[in-house]
TrEMBL record:
Protein name: Uncharacterized protein
Species assigned in the record: Ammonicoccus fulvus
The keyword Transmembrane is assigned to this record: yes
Annotated transmembrane regions: 12-33
Region (Disordered): 36-79
Biased segments, Low complexity type: 36-77
Organism domain of life: Bacteria
Keyword annotations of the record: Membrane, Transmembrane, Transmembrane helix
Length: 232
């Protein structure tokens, strides 16, 4: 298989979107075809922030100092296991801290670092990620409250609608090892309001599209669905 063939096969969504039009319209494989368009976080007069996680929750990664002394975003942990990788992406995607001096673009870069090396979906992925993060203006507002966020995952599964999409796609149009995992969990935010600690918790659902072996030795992120509009 030459390089152009491999590149075109990796564009699973753009190609699949044309071959499974009915499914895209009825189900919404938008995550690979067009990506989300509406930012999910907007500034408010009071912070939307969180209760402490339950004892069974996984402690989220926190920004760490770089060699220059500035904070840096923890990278997505690599994995050859698609479900584990999808979980790692989800955890990193929702883990941010407005008190570190970092900006939303820094967190976007951490996700893009594990994108498909072919670059076919990188522009779309950047748009997807931006929709999950606060705008720069909202970020400044949230910083006043010392807002931090993390995700606890309740469930990760391959949605039936993905199986339907794969069944309808002609041979060769989906890169080997391409799979979708829908994540169900709770977004936690914590901060301070009038000097008192406050928090909020909100259920979220979304789908992570990844490509793993045999196309790549380790998994890479292709696209994300719209938040709270996953494949099921």
């Amino acid at each position: 298989m030459d390089t152009s063939d491999r590149s075109s096969r990796r564009r699973l969504v753009l190609i699949a979107a044309g071959s499974v039009t009915a499914l895209v319209c009825g189900v919404g494989i938008y995550g690979l075809a067009t990506g989300p368009h509406t930012p999910t976080s907007t500034p408010s007069t009071s912070p939307t922030i969180t209760t402490s996680p339950s004892p069974s929750s996984t402690t989220p990664a926190t920004a760490s100092p770089s060699a220059s002394g500035a904070s840096s975003v923890p990278p997505v942990t690599r994995s050859a296991d698609p479900e584990q990788f999808a979980r790692n992406v989800a955890t990193t995607l929702f883990a941010w801290d407005t008190t570190t001096g970092l900006l939303p673009l820094d967190y976007t870069s951490a996700i893009l670092a594990v994108g498909d090396p072919s670059g076919a979906e990188q522009a779309g992925l950047a748009t997807d990620v931006a929709a999950y993060l606060p705008s720069r203006t909202a970020w400044q507002d949230l910083r006043e409250y010392g807002t931090t966020q993390h995700l606890t995952i309740d469930r990760a599964y391959i949605p039936d609608q993905w199986g339907e999409a794969v069944a309808q796609a002609p041979d060769g149009q989906l890169a080997p090892g391409t799979v979708a995992y829908t994540i169900e969990g709770t977004r936690h935010r914590t901060g301070t309001w009038n000097g008192e600690p406050v928090g909020s918790a909100h259920k979220v659902e979304f789908t992570v599209f990844v490509v793993c072996a045999p196309t790549y030795d380790t998994c890479h992120l292709l696209r994300l669905s719209q938040l709270d509009n996953p494949l099921r």
